[in-house]
Amino acid sequence: MQKCMRAFSNIGKPLFFLMIFVSITANMKIVLLGGNSIKNKEWLIDMETAIQHFSNDTIRHNYSHWENSNFSINLDTELDCLRVMLQDFNEYTILAKSAGALLALKGIYEGKIYPSACVFLGTAVLWGKENGYEIEKWLKDYSTPTLFVQNSDDPAISPQDLLTLLQKSSVINHKLIVSSGRGHEYLEYQQIAENIALFLKRPQK
C-alpha cells in the first residue's frame, strides 16, 4: 500500500491576457506540487517561503517515489493521495512545477481534484509526451483559471510552443507569462511569487 507523503505549513513579459476573475485571501489554501526529481523537496520549501507574504495556509505534497527510490512519479498513485487529502477543502489553489503541472492537469480532467485556480511553472510537455501522457486530452477545453509561467529557454517546451498548444486545445481562462529565468529550475522565487500574487489577488485584463 502506497503511503501519501505531505507536509503542512502555516508559515506565515506577458504574451497575452484574458479576463480572469480570481481572488484569494490569506486563508485560502495553496497546495504545492514539485517536479519529478527528489531535489524538488527543497524547491517546495523555498517556494513556500517566498509566498508566505500572501498565503499563510499551505500544503507541500511530497511524492511517494521520493521515499522508495523509484525513478519516476506515478501520477495515479499521487492523484489518489491528493484526492483524499483535498476532499474536505472547498477552495484551494494548486501551485505546481514541471511534472506537478501534469499531475494537476490529469487530476482535473479525471474529476479527482477541483482547484479554484492553478499556477503552473515550467509545464513539462515534452517530458510528458516521452512518458506517454495524454497531455492534449487533458488540456482539451480546459477552463480552470490558470497562470502558466514558462522560462524563455525552458527545454520542457518553449513559451511559443506552449502558447500554440493552449490555443490548439481551446484552453480558456488562462494567462501565459514568459519568464527571464534560465532553463527548467525556476529558482527566481521572489519574481515568481510576485507574479502569483498579482494573478491571484486581483482581476487580470
Task: Explain how this protein is built.
With 205 residues, this protein is α/β, with parallel strands linked by helices. It contains 8 helices and 8 strands, in the order E-E-E-H-E-H-H-E-H-E-H-H-E-H-E-H. It has helices at residues 40-50, 65-68, 75-86, 99-109, 125-130, 135-139, 159-168, 189-201; strands at residues 5-9, 14-16, 29-33, 58-62, 92-97, 117-121, 146-151, 174-179. An 8-stranded mixed sheet has the order 1-4-3-5-6-7-8-2, sandwiched between helices. Helix 3 crosses helix 4 (99-109). The longest helix is centred in the last third of the chain and has 13 residues, at 189-201. It is globular and about 35 Å long. The relative contact order is 0.19.
Counted by DSSP, the helix tally is 8
Largest sheet, if any?
A: 8 strands, mixed
List SSEs in N-to-C order: EEEHEHHEHEHHEHEH
SSE-based structural type = alpha/beta
Q: Average the pLDDT over all residues and give the rounded result.
A: 87
Query: Helical residue percent?
Result: 25-40%
What spatial order of strands do you see in the largest sheet? Answer: 1-4-3-5-6-7-8-2
Low-confidence stretches: 8-26
Number of strands: 8
Distance between the termini: 46 Å
Amount of beta strand: 15-25%
Shape summary? globular
Radius of gyration: 15 Å
